[in-house]
Amino acid sequence: MAELFELFVASITSQNIALLFILGMCPLIAVSTSVRNAKGMGVAVIFVVTITAIINYPIYVLLRATGSTNIQLLVFIATIAATVQFLEMFLDKFIPRLYNAFGIFLPLITVNCAVLAVSLFFVNRTYNFVQTTTFAFGSGIGWALAIILVAGLREKMAKTSDVPKGLAGKGIVFIILGILSLAFIGFTGLASA
After folding, report:
1. In whole angstroms, what is the distance from residue 121 CA to residue 26 CA?
2. Which residue has the higher pLDDT, 164 or 48?
3. Do 116 and 76 touch, CB atoms closer than 8 A?
4. pLDDT band at 193, cuts 50/70/90?
5. Are 18 and 146 in contact (CB under 8 A)?
6. pTM higher than 0.70 for the full model?
7. Burial 82-119 (b: 16+ CB within 10 A, else e)
């Protein structure tokens, strides 16, 4: 149980998929213009990352048993695309305001490399099903935490700071991401302490 807790904490902090592996940057930068949008996108990514990892794990076990692991990437991408399509239809039907706020970025979760990376990580790290689920959920939370932190800082800076013209917009976001990455590296070794 302690090992799973360490994996969960590490996937949020010292192994943060966005801040340390620099994955999923396109939607993170584009949607982090407001905390409200960032929270919605964060929840969507948590859901998609967790569900696709849960679905992809037994598929990978089947592929490994049949000696067909050479098509795992294709199968993982198809699973991600189907999950995102389901989420898109659900939001359009039941939460249209959030669906409209996402705009083009909701379908882009399909090609969000963070979502695919979680499925590839459990293969490379030889996680079992429970570890995969824990890691996927924690990675989703870590990505959501990153986008919400960036959005909060962007909103605060828009009200209180005079950002130099050359850094306005995406330039300052990259600086924020760099500083957050350095801060999250500081969590390395926390779980083993």
Report:
1. 20
2. 48
3. yes
4. very low
5. yes
6. yes
7. ebbeebbeebeeeeeebbebbeebbebbbebebbbbbb
